[in-house]
Write a structure and sequence with these properties.
The chain has 328 residues and is α+β, with helices and mostly antiparallel strands. The protein contains 13 helices and 10 strands.
Length: 328
């Protein structure tokens, strides 16, 4: 049994403040899939917080005060001792479950030694590239995601963080993807060519994909198109292609990719031109998710899409309104 399984039915009361200027609000706090779910008295989710990202603002003091991330205005006060201890235990379990740097290096070094035998015969950049993509673990990919997001934040400003809008994004991820864990979707006010998937699976969308469009099926189309592109070509490949052969070899053998290469990739994502609107696999992905592609393809000037499959509403009206206001 994991720490999250142990507490999956635990609930407590909490005082939630959406912004610094907002009134504190009585809420119900419970655990979701790697998230902390904050709901109103009727059980309607107000927002979801990523458990590994939660920050304790008053270490050693009770009631405990938490925030969804270090620079957030949103806060949650909890007095329940069991819930406080549970949050701390689950957070630490999720964080320490990631391989440590030394262990990661050992894994990559061993994989690199094995790979070099093959590279001695096939010594060219393509072989190094594919060898690297094949051995980088999910924990390192997540670390690269975090570094790219931090660079985007420093260059283009904070990500859109309205609490109801974030909850709507969580609902959208649940609606579109049936895999576990579902990808994290973050919204930014800067341009990233509409939508893009980072090497660790985080999906970044810019506000043009939801603020100025008529319906959530268009936003869903942008997200599915980004995922289809990522399925066709590993996003980590673009990072190491930009870095070059020597940094890639260093990454393969040590697990370290210089910050300057990650920053360069993040800058390339900002204000990039929108990619091909209809990548291979998008139609099948939309059919699996029961999303009508016609509004999206009409928005981006794509080709006609098949309409002979069942479609289901993407978001309810109230969630769609919340998503459109996520950057407010």
């Amino acid at each position: 049994m994991t720490a999250l399984d142990q507490y999956e039915r635990l609930e407590s009361e909490g005082l939630w403040r959406e912004t610094k200027d907002a009134q504190r609000r009585d809420t119900v706090v419970s655990f979701g899939n790697a998230t902390l779910v904050i709901s109103d008295a009727a059980g309607r989710p107000l927002t979801h917080w990523s458990l590994p990202a939660i920050v304790r603002l008053n270490e050693g003091t009770r009631p405990a005060l938490f925030a969804p991330q270090a620079d957030a205005d949103e806060t949650l006060e909890i007095a329940d001792e069991l819930m406080i201890d549970a949050i701390e235990k689950v957070r630490k379990t999720l964080l320490t479950g990631r391989p440590q740097k030394g262990k990661l290096r050992s894994v990559l070094i061993v994989a690199g030694i094995v790979g070099f035998a093959a590279l001695a015969v096939f010594w060219f950049p393509g072989a190094v590239r594919e060898q690297t993509l094949g051995v980088v673990p999910a924990s390192k990919r997540a670390e690269i995601d975090a570094a790219i997001l931090q660079n985007i934040r420093e260059t283009a400003g904070p990500f859109c963080a309205n609490a109801r809008g974030r909850a709507a994004l969580q609902s959208l991820a649940t609606r579109l993807f049936d895999t576990e864990p579902r990808p994290t979707i973050v919204a930014t006010s800067s341009a990233v060519g509409g939508s893009v998937v980072l090497p660790g699976g985080t999906i970044v969308i810019d506000k043009s994909t939801f603020e100025t469009v008529d319906e959530p099926a268009i936003t869903a189309g942008y997200i599915l198109a980004a995922q289809a592109r990522a399925d066709a070509a590993d996003p980590l490949g673009k990072v190491i292609d930009g870095a070059g052969i020597q940094p890639t070899l260093r990454f393969l053998t040590t697990g370290d990719l210089a910050a300057e290469h990650i920053a360069a990739h993040a800058n390339a994502l900002i204000d990039r031109a929108a990619p091909n609107a209809s990548p291979k696999g998008l139609g099948a992905m939309a059919q699996d998710a029961k999303v009508n592609l016609v509004p999206y393809l009409s928005e981006v000037g794509g080709p006609e899409a098949p309409t002979d499959y069942e479609t289901v509403i993407v978001l309810q009206d109230n969630a769609w309104v919340s998503l459109q206001g996520i950057c407010d």
